[in-house]
Amino acid sequence: MKLSYYCDSCKQENFIKASAPTRVELQMFLGKDEIKERCKYCSHLNIKHLNRIMASPSKMISFIVGVAGILIGGFLIYLFGWLGALAFSIPAIIAAQQQKTVSTFNKTTIRRK
Questions:
Q1: How does residue 12 score in pLDDT terms, banded at 50, 70 and 90?
Q2: Which of 8, 18, 11, 12 is nearest to 47 (CA)?
Q3: 30 within domain boundaries
Q4: Are residues 36 and 81 in the same domain?
Q5: Do 71 and 82 reside in the same domain of the chain?
Q6: Are 44 and 77 in a shared domain?
Q7: In which band, very low, low, confident or very high, does the pLDDT at 73 lie, cut at 50, 70 and 90?
Q8: Is there a single domain that holds both residue 49 and residue 7?
Q9: Quick check: is 67 in a domain?
C-alpha cells in the first residue's frame, strides 16, 4: 500500500514514506494531524491534513506475488496435476486483501481540530 497526496501548486502526485493500515494509526505514528512536505516536482511546501492522504495498492507487490504464484502454480501442477491449480488462487487472495486494506484506509477519517 502506498500513501500519496496531490501538490497544491503543480497537482502532481507525491508519495509518503510512512506506512499505516488506518489514518488513526498514521496519526499516532506521526504524532500530529498534518504533514508538511515539499513537492518533489516543484519544491512547494505542502501542509496536508491526514484526511487528504489517499492510499493505493502497490503494483510492485502485486507483480511479485503474481509471478511467484505462476511459478509455484506451474510447479505444483507438474507435481500434483490439476489439484495444484489451486495455487493460482494465492495471488488473487493477496490482491483482495491488499484492496481491502486500501479501502479501509480510505474510508476511515479523523476529526479535524
A1: very high
A2: 8
A3: yes
A4: no
A5: yes
A6: no
A7: confident
A8: yes
A9: yes
Residues ≥6 apart with Cβ < 8 Å to 81: none
Instruction: Write down the pTM of the prediction.
Output: 0.78
- What is the number of domains present in the chain? 2
7, 39 Cβ separation under 8 angstroms = yes
With a cut of 90, say whether residue 62 has pLDDT above it: no
Residue 49 in 3-state DSSP? strand
Backbone angles phi, psi at 104, to 5 degrees: -65, -45
User: CA–CA distance from 88 to each of 18, 46, 64, 75, 85 (Å)?
Assistant: 31, 43, 13, 11, 6
Phi/psi class of residue 11: alpha, beta or left (left: φ > 0; alpha: ψ in -120 to 50)? left
16 touches 34 (CB < 8 A): no
Q: Which domain holds residue 83?
A: 59-107
- pLDDT tens digits, one per residue of 19-46: 888 999 999 998 999 999 999 999 999 9
Q: Are 30 and 19 in contact (CB under 8 A)?
A: no
Q: Which residue has better confidence, 106 or 111?
A: 106
